[in-house]
Amino acid sequence: MIGYLVRRLAQAVLLLFGAVTIVFLVLRVIPGDPAALILGSQATAQELAAKRDEMGLSDPLLAQYARHLGEIVRLDFGDSWRLGGDAFAAVLDRLPATITLAGFALLFTLALGFPLGVYAARHKGKLADRAVSYFSLTGQALPAFWVGIMLVLIFSRTLNILPATADGSALALVLPAFTLALPFLGWLARLVRNGTLEELGRDYVRTARSKGLSERVVFNIHVLRNTLTPVITVLGLILGNFIADAVIIEQVFAWPGIGSLMIESIQNRDYAVAEAAIILIAVFYIGLNLVVDLLYFALDPRVTLETV
Amino acid sequence: MSALLEVSGLQVAFGELRAVRGVSLTVGKGQTLAVVGESGSGKSITSLAVMGLLPAQARVVEGEISLDGVNLLDLAPEELRRLRGEELAMIFQDPLSALNPSLTVGYQIAEVFRRRRGASRAVATGRAVEAMAEVGIPDAAERAKAYPHEFSGGMRQRVMIAMALALEPRLLIADEPTTALDVTVQAQILRLLRERQRAGLAMIIISHDLGVVARTAQSVVVMYAGQAVESGTVAEVYGTPAHPYTLGLMAASPSARTGRRGIRPIDGNPPDLTALPSGCAFHPRCPFARERCRTETPALRPLPSGRTSACHFAEEVLAHDRAAGA
């Protein structure tokens, strides 16, 4: 167990290192000069060069990279030239908004996806099952930004019952969270449907019935218990995707989370903030994957170290 | 002796396909009946029909299944459910897949007491541990907390037996209870079942292992292509088969006398249930077959001494047995 943990942790660190390297390279390759953006178009060549020296941008790339790694270990991403102050603090400041959005999206996904999947399984082959299936595929096929805009048009502009952008009210969460959840909601519904049908056909279900247990107990205790395991393990992955997908959704709904902050920062060549945001998203993604793997142990007694 | 379970003229269909085509059998109180036959002969489907646990696509088209004179097929699903566990119980061939992988074995036994008898969690757990100890699981209190995959095959089958017998049913259906087990473990499980028989448990034991049948059952029904083709006491049917198929089954099983070298498989393959031969379903493989067998379906008919056979030439088969024995 300890050995496995250590191995997984080492993998996670390696992945993070890769993410840091890619982000570093990509941000340096993007055209555009931070010094020019900071100083404006009136700046002279000397002023620009001095600014670049000051920011360490004229050092060789490898030197920049080495210095950079050291800084990241200390969680020092540098200051944001645009917002002033620590870049990492600026990102952390926006984190609660993203977490709230992702949390609500997860709530939508679970509260709708799970029952829909169970319902479809219980009505296999009937109209309800096909309806869930179409809904699921449609939800996965539509691009999120388009769904977001359509929802705004319908619920905000036309019906005027939900706010289109963050206005501080809890209602403002509904549209972005639903938009974020939609593709995963359908995906989860299908996963639950297929998992439930598979479990219903297993021998232990017949055994449970042979004991004279009611259908309710057979389903809620015996079948759902086994359907739940894969669901809980994908929830971590879904949450990781939510935090990553929030980049687009937050932009559509002007949601003040790390996604919109990241896009603003990239547009303004505010490397420090952009990088802090991307790294934080990567940490979430990798961390949640790690948690999922560990959850597997807790939930499925058959998963032992020999089987991983 | 009055019958505990009486199945008569049972027919079960999967859509157009008749998997069971008229089976009758009787289990006396405290008696054990064996049902033998090749895979696909309808043995398991018959037993699932008795339990009311047929797969969703299957349905009983005809016949009667009466337990103590009550036709189970007339009962509402809820009434039949209450009989399961309480009067009828079943154990299966593969105890690993028959147990829920995500629940401890203690939970799976205890839930019978909790859901069916309203016992509290603590009381039910205590009784589950007792039940496990009774079927010879060592260190039962500790093992109750383990999951099915943490047991050996033989111990798992003991768990199944403890679970099936938890509410002291009168009839246990054992579907190939030892097939998936090692020979030495088989003997232990059979010994356990025999102890229960002595305590008054009636059983239907489904097996293709004639040795298992000989050691557990008083009477036997031989099935072929969804029909009973012969029935009688184990001694009679084994000693002097009255149906050519039974004769073939005997020749195809190893015996102490001839050893494995004496095995003669039955020619041909079990019939395709979607395209059964005309007349007697066994005639294409039967060494006794005549013209009549191709045209006329034989009925199961009584022979002297209370046994039955569905062969036009049962008397001839019996004469052949005697000649071979002499």
Automatic annotation (TrEMBL), chain A:
GO cellular component entries: plasma membrane
PROSITE patterns per the UniProt record, alphabetical: ABC_TM1
Membrane spanning residue stretches: 12-30, 99-120, 132-156, 168-189, 231-256, 276-299
CDD domains: TM_PBP2
Membrane topology: Multi-pass membrane protein
Entry GO MF terms: dipeptide transmembrane transporter activity
Family of the protein in this entry: Belongs to the binding-protein-dependent transport system permease family.
Name used for this protein in its record: Peptide ABC transporter permease
Organism (species): Actinophytocola xinjiangensis
Lineage: Bacteria, Bacillati, Actinomycetota, Actinomycetes, Pseudonocardiales
From TrEMBL, chain B:
InterPro entries noted in UniProt: AAA+_ATPase, ABC_Ni/Peptide_Import, ABC_transporter-like_ATP-bd, ABC_transporter-like_CS, Oligopep_ABC_C, P-loop_NTPase
GO molecular function, one term: ATP hydrolysis activity
Entry keyword set: ATP-binding, Cell membrane, Membrane, Nucleotide-binding, Transport
Cellular compartments per GO CC: plasma membrane
Major localization listed first in the record, in broad terms: membrane
Coiled coil start-end: none
A UniProt-annotated Pfam family: ABC_tran
UniProt-annotated location(s): Cell membrane
Keyword Coiled coil: no
Domain ABC transporter as annotated: residue spans: 5-250
Protein topology in the membrane: Peripheral membrane protein
GO biological process: peptide transport
PANTHER family: DIPEPTIDE TRANSPORT ATP-BINDING PROTEIN DPPD, OLIGOPEPTIDE TRANSPORT ATP-BINDING PROTEIN APPD
Protein family: Belongs to the ABC transporter superfamily.
Name of the featured protein: Methionine ABC transporter ATP-binding protein
Annotated organism of origin: Actinophytocola xinjiangensis
Organismal lineage: Bacteria, Bacillati, Actinomycetota, Actinomycetes, Pseudonocardiales
